[in-house]
C-alpha cells in the first residue's frame, strides 16, 4: 500500500468523475428462519445488475476481526489508514453541525440515554427521542456551570448531542462514559495522560450535574459521552488526490468527517431521494462525490431486520438516478457491517461493487455477501478502495521508472 505522500506524487487531475456511495452498516448476518442476510433478502435488481457489470469483493474497514467505528470506517474508504489517522467522534459531531470549534476545545459526542432506579443503562438512545426534545434538553444542560471551563451543549439529531469544553490546558485523551451496552452503569471518565486530568474532571462533573438536571425527563434521564477529541490536522483529498470533492450526507457526523478531509459539503434533504437529487443537481461541479446513506445502520442498530431490508430496497429503487449520470467510476459499499441480529457494528467484511468504464468483469451476478465473497477483487483492506477508484478513473500516473 502506497503512503499518502506517494499517492500525492502520482495523482493527477482529469475530467473523469467518481461517485462513492456508502450504505452505512451495509453488511449483515443471516436471519435464522431464512438463512439470508438483509442484503440477500432485499429485492435489489439494480444493484444486482450493477454487480454483474462491475467487479466485486469484500473489504475489511480496519483489520480482520476488528469492529470499526464510523470514523475509521469512512477514513479507510477515503484512503486514510485508520490505524495512523485517528479522529474522535466528538470533533466530527461539532464540525458536522457547523459549530465554531477552536483548537483548544475538547469535544465529546453525547447520547441521551435511559437509566433505571439502580443507575443502570436500560436504553443507550433514550428511545431515539425527537430532535426537538433534544434541543430543549440541551438548552437546560447548557446552564450547567463548570469549574475551570466554558461548556457548550448543542443538539445534533434525535438522541445525539455534542458537549464542548473550552478552556486552557485541556486534552481529549479521556476515556468514554458510554459502556456500549445495557445493564451496566455509565463509566467514570479517566485521563489517559497527565495532560488530560483537567478534562476528565470536567467531564465527570458535567455528567454528575447532567444526571441531576435530567432526573425528571424520562426516558432521557442521563447522558453518555464518548469520542473525546480535539481538532486534528489531516491532509486533504485535494492535496493528496487533486480532487475537487463534494459530500452529500444528511447526518451531521458524516458531514463533519468529510469537511475534515477537505470536501465541500452540499446542502441536502433528509431522505435518500433528496441526497440522490442533490448529486444530480451538482454533478457538473465536482469530480468526486461521497454520498452517504444512514438509515441502514440505524435499522441494524435497532435490531430491525425488515427495516434495514426496506432501506436497501429504497436505495436500489433510486439507484438509476446515479446510473443515468454515467459516472466513470461508481463504488458501492459500506463503512462497516451492522447486522440486525447483533444490534451493533460488527467485524464482518463488507461487500463492494466497483463499476468502471475501464474495469474487468467477474462472475458475480448479485450484490450480496456470499456473491461478493467470490468476486475477483477478493477480500482486501478498505484503505485500498480509493487507489482502485482513482486508477479506474485514469487519475493515477505510473509508479516508478
Overview of the molecule:
By secondary structure, the protein is α/β, with parallel strands linked by helices. The chain contains 15 helices and 13 strands. It folds into 2 domains: 241 residues, Alkaline Phosphatase, subunit A (3-Layer(aba) Sandwich); 138 residues, no CATH class. β5 and β6 form a beta hairpin. It starts with a helix and ends in a 9-residue tail after the last helix.
Summarize the structure.
The chain is α/β, with parallel strands linked by helices and about 400 residues long. It has two domains: about 5-85 and about 235-390, Alkaline Phosphatase, subunit A (3-Layer(aba) Sandwich), CATH 3.40.720.10; about 90-230, no CATH class. It contains 15 helices and 13 strands.
For CATH, the homologous superfamily of the largest domain is named as Alkaline Phosphatase, subunit A
Helix and strand composition category? alpha/beta
**How big a fraction of the residues is strand?**
15-25%
Q: In CATH terms, what is the architecture of the largest domain?
A: 3-Layer(aba) Sandwich
pLDDT < 50 runs, ≥5 residues: none
Strand numbers in spatial order across the main sheet: 9-8-10-1-11-12-2-13
How much helicity do the residues have? 25-40%
User: Which CATH top level class of the largest domain fits?
Assistant: Alpha Beta
For the termini, the CA-CA separation is 18 Å
Amino acid at each position: 500500500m502506497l503512503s499518502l505522500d506517494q499517492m500525492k506524487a502520482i495523482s493527477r487531475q482529469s475530467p473523469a468523475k467518481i461517485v462513492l456511495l456508502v450504505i452505512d452498516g451495509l453488511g449483515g448476518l443471516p436471519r435464522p428462519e431464512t438463512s439470508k442476510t438483509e442484503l440477500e433478502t432485499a429485492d435489489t435488481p439494480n444493484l444486482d445488475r450493477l454487480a454483474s457489470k462491475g467487479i466485486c469483493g469484500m473489504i475489511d474497514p480496519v483489520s480482520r476481526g476488528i469492529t470499526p467505528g464510523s470514523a475509521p470506517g469512512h477514513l479507510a474508504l477515503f484512503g486514510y489508514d485508520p490505524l495512523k489517522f485517528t479522529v474522535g467522534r466528538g470533533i466530527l459531531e461539532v464540525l458536522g453541525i457547523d459549530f465554531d470549534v477552536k483548537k483548544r476545545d475538547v469535544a465529546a459526542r453525547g447520547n441521551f440515554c435511559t437509566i433505571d432506579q439502580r443507575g443502570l443503562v436500560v436504553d443507550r438512545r433514550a428511545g431515539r427521542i425527537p430532535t426537538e426534545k433534544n434541543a430543549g434538553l440541551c438548552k437546560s444542560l447548557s446552564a450547567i456551570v463548570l469549574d475551570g471551563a466554558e461548556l457548550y451543549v448543542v443538539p445534533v439529531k434525535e438522541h445525539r448531542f455534542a458537549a464542548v469544553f473550552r478552556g486552557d490546558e485541556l486534552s481529549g485523551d479521556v476515556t468514554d462514559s458510554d459502556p456500549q451496552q445495557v445493564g451496566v452503569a455509565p463509566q467514570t471518565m479517566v485521563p489517559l495522560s497527565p495532560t488530560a486530568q483537567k478534562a476528565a474532571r470536567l467531564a465527570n462533573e458535567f455528567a454528575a450535574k447532567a444526571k441531576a438536571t435530567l432526573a425528571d425527563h424520562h426516558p432521557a434521564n442521563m447522558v453518555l459521552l464518548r469520542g473525546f477529541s480535539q481538532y486534528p490536522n489531516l491532509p486533504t483529498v485535494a492535496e493528496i488526490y487533486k480532487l475537487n470533492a463534494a459530500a452529500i450526507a444528511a447526518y451531521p457526523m458524516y458531514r463533519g468527517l468529510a469537511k475534515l478531509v477537505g470536501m465541500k459539503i452540499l446542502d441536502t434533504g433528509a431522505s435518500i431521494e433528496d441526497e440522490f437529487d442533490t448529486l444530480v443537481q451538482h454533478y457538473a461541479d465536482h469530480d468526486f462525490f461521497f454520498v452517504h446513506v444512514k438509515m441502514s445502520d440505524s435499522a441494524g442498530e435497532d435490531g430491525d431486520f425488515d427495516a434495514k431490508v426496506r432501506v436497501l430496497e429504497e436505495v436500489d429503487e433510486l439507484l438509476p438516478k446515479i446510473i443515468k449520470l454515467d459516472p466513470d467510476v461508481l463504488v458501492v459499499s459500506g463503512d462497516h457491517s451492522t447486522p440486525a441480529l447483533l444490534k451493533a457494528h460488527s467485524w464482518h467484511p463488507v461487500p463492494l461493487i466497483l463499476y468502471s468504464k475501464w474495469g474487468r468483469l467477474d462472475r458475480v451476478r448479485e450484490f450480496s455477501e456470499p456473491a461478493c465473497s467470490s468476486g475477483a477483487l477478493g477480500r482486501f483492506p478498505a484503505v485500498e478502495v480509493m487507489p482502485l477508484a482513482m486508477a479506474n478513473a485514469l487519475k493515477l500516473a505510473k509508479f516508478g521508472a
